[in-house]
Amino acid sequence: MLYAIQLENGKVFVMSDVPQKVAQILLQTEAIQVYKEKPFVFVSGRISPVYIDCRKLLSFADEREYIVTQLAKKAEIDVGLNNIDVVARGETAGIPYASFVSHLIKKPMIYIRKQPKGYGGTRQIEGNLNAGQRVLLVEDLITDGLSKLRFNIGIRAAGAKMTHCLCVFDYASDRLGQHEGRDNLAKNDIGLHVLANWDDVLDAGLTKNYFSEEANRQIIDFLKDPENWGRKMSFV
């Protein structure tokens, strides 16, 4: 669904309600969780007020269908089906999303390991990928984009090229000027397309009462300085 917003200068911008709907789904299914009493501790030791696990979406059929349908539409409209030869899925969280999308847009699919397997043909890519083919990588989440670039090493080794990356959620914020994932992919001539980012989640969280104004402030503080948030909040 599209709707138009008229600005004070008279210009009209057509906006989509998809990012807000996706953000609401992520919160509703607890694919994005906001701490209440104890913060989340990552393997790296970083302490966070939020935790994201898009694999939770897979257990909610209606919400999953909406997300996958929007990913397929974005692939068709923003990338163009004629510009996609193969859909790739990375190990491991992106596998189901790429599978659904490749089925909907009727494109071949490959699977990319994080590292070449140490037996058999020692392949990093499972499936058929030919030199010169253009690859759309479909993932659940992008942060700094570096894991996507590691997958691209295997694609380039096969003589193909990752041209676009499509994700459910981007760990980015337009308001804070944070686009690390997009910028890192752009340096390698890879376009990034996402359904929602932190701005959408913060808006949906407040308007739909998924978290408080205080939680909103803490998330923003974390996004501004993730390394020191836990110390600032006296969790360390």
CATH fold descriptor: Rossmann fold
Number of domains: 1
Radius of gyration: 19 Å
The amount of beta strand, in percent, is 15-25%
Main beta sheet: strand number and arrangement? 6 strands, mixed
By CATH reckoning, the class would read Alpha Beta
Mean pLDDT: 90
Query: What class do helices, strands and sheet pairing give?
Result: alpha/beta
* Order of helical and strand elements: EEHEEEEHEHEEEHEHEHHH
What features would you describe in this structure?
The chain has 236 residues and is α/β, with parallel strands linked by helices. The protein has one domain: Rossmann fold. Helices cover 36% and strands 24% of the residues. It has eight helices and twelve strands. It has helices at 18-28, 61-79, 95-105, 146-157, 180-186, 198-207, 213-224, 229-232; strands spanning 2-6, 12-16, 32-34, 40-41, 47-48, 50-52, 86-90, 109-112, 125-126, 134-142, 161-170, 191-197. It has a six-stranded mixed β-sheet with strand order 9-8-7-10-11-12, sandwiched between helices. The chain starts with a strand and ends with a helix. The relative contact order is 0.15. Mean pLDDT is 90; it is low at 1-9 and 11-15.
Features of this protein?
8 helices, single chain, two-stranded antiparallel ribbon, six-stranded mixed beta sheet, disordered N terminus, Rossmann fold, 236 residues, alpha/beta, 24% strand
Write a concise synopsis of the structure shown.
This protein has helices at residues 18-28, 61-79, 95-105, 146-157, 180-186, 198-207, 213-224, 229-232, and strands spanning 2-6, 12-16, 32-34, 40-41, 47-48, 50-52, 86-90, 109-112, 125-126, 134-142, 161-170, 191-197.
